[in-house]
């Protein structure tokens, strides 16, 4: 007789995320709801060590209801392969869950409307590291920083109610698609992620001892 082993902790997190998305699809007061086709909640591994946070859904994402499925998503998959990761290994989401018209930048009140949804995702997953894809994601947590000087550096800051205090800003893959020099910088920064995770583990061990 064969026994099937289930990871109940993983299933619990998956169920919690599904509940969270259902709740906020109904309750989110974001103005972008009026013009978007549908909500685009986070997607991926509920047990992930890394959560990637982008800016907002684009046209493909709005149509499919999944984040990072367009050109920027393909480039992201390419970069994940540089560090031997696949999309299924990570969790990816956006600060805003609805597509802004014409792919314009999300407005402050739109970001604020979706903030509790994003924080809910982070709270359930409890990743070791949050990777910001672009300045909008970074400025949502670190409003004073500039992506040009902060990219590729580990940021450490505790936030109330969040288990995660380690952050790593990168340029957004969409911006790098149109700028060759930024593309190489983004790849170089991406290659630092395994070392950053090792640094976090070292810090956590030292804090416990």
Structure description:
The protein has 209 residues and is of the alpha/beta class. It has one domain (10-208): Uracil-DNA Glycosylase, subunit E, CATH 3.40.470.10. The chain is 46% helix and 11% strand. Strands 1-3-2-4-6-5 form a 6-stranded mixed beta sheet, sandwiched between helices. The longest helix has 20 residues, at 8-27. The chain is globular. The N and C termini lie far apart (44 Å).
Question: What is this structure's SSE topology?
Answer:
Blueprint: H1 8-27, E1 43-44, E2 50-54, H2 59-64, H3 71-82, E3 91-94, H4 108-125, E4 129-133, H5 135-139, H6 147-150, E5 155-156, E6 166-170, H7 173-177, H8 180-190, H9 193-208
Parallel strand pairs: 2-3, 2-4, 4-6
Antiparallel strand pairs: 1-3, 5-6
Helix pairs in contact: 1-4
In short:
The protein is an alpha/beta fold and 209 residues long.
Radius of gyration: 17 Å
Strand content: 5-15%
CATH superfamily: Uracil-DNA glycosylase-like domain
CATH class category name: Alpha Beta
Q: How many structural domains can be distinguished in the coordinates?
A: 1
Form type: globular
> Overall mean pLDDT score?
93
Give the low-confidence spans: 1-6
CATH architecture annotation: 3-Layer(aba) Sandwich
N-to-C span: 44 Å
């Amino acid at each position: 007789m064969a026994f099937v082993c289930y990871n109940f902790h993983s299933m619990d997190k998956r169920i919690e995320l599904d509940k969270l998305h259902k709740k906020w699809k109904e309750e989110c007061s974001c103005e972008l709801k009026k013009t978007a086709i549908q909500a685009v909640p986070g997607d991926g591994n509920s047990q992930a060590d890394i959560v990637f946070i982008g800016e907002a859904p684009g046209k493909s994402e709005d149509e499919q209801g999944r984040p990072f499925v367009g050109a920027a998503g393909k480039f992201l998959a390419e970069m994940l392969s540089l560090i031997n990761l696949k999309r299924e290994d990570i969790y990816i989401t956006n600060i805003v869950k609805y597509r802004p018209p014409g792919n314009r930048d999300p407005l402050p009140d739109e970001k604020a409307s979706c903030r509790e949804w994003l924080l809910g995702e982070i709270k359930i997953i409890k990743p070791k590291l949050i990777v910001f894809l672009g300045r909008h994601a970074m400025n949502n947590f670190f409003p004073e920083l500039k992506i040009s000087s902060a990219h590729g550096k580990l940021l450490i800051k505790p936030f109330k109610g969040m288990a995660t205090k380690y952050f790593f800003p990168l340029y957004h893959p969409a911006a790098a698609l149109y700028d060759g020099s930024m593309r190489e910088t983004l790849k170089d920064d991406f290659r630092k992620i395994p070392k950053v995770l090792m640094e976090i583990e070292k810090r956590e061990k030292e804090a416990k001892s």
